[in-house]
Amino acid sequence: MSSSGHGQSILKSKADLQKAWDYAQEGGRAGAGRVIVEGFVKFDYEITLLTVRHINGTSFLAPIGHRQEDGDYRESWQPQAMSDSALQKAQAIAEKSQVR
Questions:
Q1: Inter-residue contact 63 to 88 (CB < 8 Å)
Q2: Quick one: average pLDDT of 47-53?
Q3: pLDDT at 63 over 50
Q4: What residues does 72 pair with on adjacent strands?
Q5: Residues 6 or more apart whose Cβ sits within 8 Å of residue 63
């Protein structure tokens, strides 16, 4: 379990499970019988949308784009080009997920 990619595996069959588990326990940050399991999702780009809640409402910074290669972070940039509808959806999700 690591944002750095350490302890990360791609499983192509059930036969890969034990080896991946062992590697995650040895190489990941968490260990102790814990892992994060993710699935593959096709997407056009990955963003971070920094959101600030204040007395007058919510403000959003320009979206930050990210690129990974083979599961490892490579670079980020700002702004990430997005359609107006994608940006509005991202802002709506971010606003709903704010801690109140």
A1: no
A2: 95
A3: yes
A4: 69
A5: 47, 48, 49, 78, 79, 80, 82, 87, 90
Residue 3 — very low, low, confident or very high, per pLDDT cuts 50/70/90? low
DSSP symbols for 27-70: HSS--TT----------S-EEE--EEEETTEEEEPPPEEEEEET
Q: How far is 72 from 75, CA to CA, in rounded Å?
A: 10
The neighbouring-strand residues paired with 59 are 52
Tokens representing residue 88 in the block: 């509005």
pTM, whole model, 2 decimals?
0.68
Amino acid in the structure at residue 44: D
How are strands ordered across the β-sheet holding 72-77? 46-48, 64-69, 72-77
**More confident of the two residues 64 and 22:** 64
Exposed, middle or buried, 91 (CB in 10 Å: 0-12/13-18/19+)? middle
pLDDT at 31: 67
